Amino acid sequence: MRVGLLITCLADLMRPSIGLAALKLLERAGCDVVVPSTQTCCGQPGYNSGDRPAAQALARKLISEFSDCDYVVVPSGSCSGMIKTHYVELLSELPEARAKAEWLAARTWELTDFLANVVRLDAIDVRFDGTVTYHDSCAGLREMGVKNQPRELLAKVSGLSIREMHDSEQCCGFGGTFAIKYGDISVRLADLKCDEVAKCKADALVLGDLGCMLNIEGRLRRRGDNRTKVLHVAEVLAGMTGEEVE
Question: Hey, what domains does the chain have and what are their CATH numbers?
Fold first, then answer.
């Protein structure tokens, strides 16, 4: 099984441990993993901002880079959702490119969905001593159908217990360029999310999208919470508890 790993530009630049954790998990599952060295952005920022030509160029580039893979796996509901949900429309006026987008969309999976439902990972041989609460990122939940998959995998981690927060599906306020264009609203949403995290009194907040991680963690720290760890689900499952990797 040849699996292409899209690390995402945000993880590559801000928290490469996520990409390394995803690679470790896929290799442990027996996948033949390829990581195209030329990969950059999926085109979502341009698409969301109305720069269709730039987004199309990046989409066509990505499709070409992963054209020889049986699957494309992404540790992000946002970027996997862009490929699976929006590429076909983005390239709709380009028949040949659209056909390739349809081909890729059918083979694109969010990481925890792939681990739970394609390779059917039975055992997670790592330990995390503590409680976690899980935030459902908007794109992963609504575009990729990711809800139970990360929880099922986390439940296999020795020592870990899940403490659900109220309104785990409520947006954290990031939304890509939304946080820039509507800063006051974004901060208010982040504060509401941080309130729920605080009520849980969990050792760590775990989630599957780095944009949400940065937004929530940044707000937690500004509010004075330096105790709650903020971890990507891949880091927990791979036994990499959030340390930055240079």
Answer: 2-117 (3.40.50), 127-237 (3.40.50)
